[in-house]
Amino acid sequence: MFTGIIEAVGSIQAININGEGARLVVSTGKLDMSDVNLGDSIATNGICLTVVAFDQTSFSADVSNETLKRTGFVNYRAGQKVNLEKAMLPTTRFGGHMVSGHVDGVSKILSITNNGNSIEYWLSVTENLAAYVAEKGSVTIDGISLTVNSLADGKFRITIVPHTTEQTIIGSYQVGTLVNIEVDLIARYIERLIMHKGADQNASSAGSGVSEALLMQSGFIK
User: Fold this and answer.
1) Which of 6, 34, 53, 220 has a CA 20 to 30 Å removed from the CA of 135?
2) Which pLDDT score is estimated for 197?
3) Taking the model in full, what pTM does it have?
4) Residue 140: is it exposed, middle or buried by C-beta count within 10 angstroms (0-12/13-18/19+)?
5) Domain extent listing, the chain
6) What is the DSSP letter of 178?
7) pLDDT tens, residue by residue, 170-196
8) CATH number for region 8-86
């Protein structure tokens, strides 16, 4: 589990894609590797990767074909900058939101506009993910925990403050850049709960009591 607060910017040192997936070597920049062990998880542009080898300046990880299909990794090349975050500890300050590192898909940067000292980005969202993106809700872009400021048909807007631009790769984005997106974890489980409840309408009424109407009334969905 991660928080979406980026700890360091690293870069792809080497990537070898074959029919079975890929082996990745990541230079870790200023990321503190002193407490990293084999088998630990490090989110790399929002993708939870398992450390299979490491030293004080880099780590290696295997990437499955499923991950290549779901994310932008298939287009990554040596030298590309990536956001890095180690898995959270029980004592970690929860500055972002719950991020699983299981990327749902890819979004495209549609427009970039300066607004005072901040920058506004409009990003595309596919129809199958749009229901999970809520105004003033949370979304993860390349591992960064961000707030959705507004929605429109097939797209949403985020506003980036200078600190985020300085501490992540987001300042390198251009119109057309493809980014990894993970929707809100809670939204996924709410949908699953509603689907299960709907399939079980004729079962005993001694269930959870959660219904779509109740969730709408409580402000979880619109």
Assistant:
1) 6
2) 61
3) 0.85
4) buried
5) 8-86, 105-183, 186-217
6) E
7) 999 999 999 999 998 887 777 777 776
8) 2.40.30.20
What tens digit of pLDDT does each residue of 101-150 get? 999 999 999 999 999 999 999 999 999 999 899 999 999 999 999 999 99
Question: Which residue from 167, 112, 107 is spatially nearest to 132, judged by alpha carbons?
Answer: 107
Same fold, 8-86 and 105-183: yes
Six-digit token string for 165? 């631009």
Closest alpha carbon to 184 in 138, 151, 143, 129: 138
Which structure tokens are listed for 49?
């990767």
Fold of the domain spanning 105-183: Elongation Factor Tu (Ef-tu); domain 3 (2.40.30)
Q: Which two tokens stand for residue 75?
A: 């287009």
Mean pLDDT over each residue of the chain, to the nearest integer:
89
DSSP classification of residue 172: G
β-strand pairing of 81-86 with 155-160: unpaired
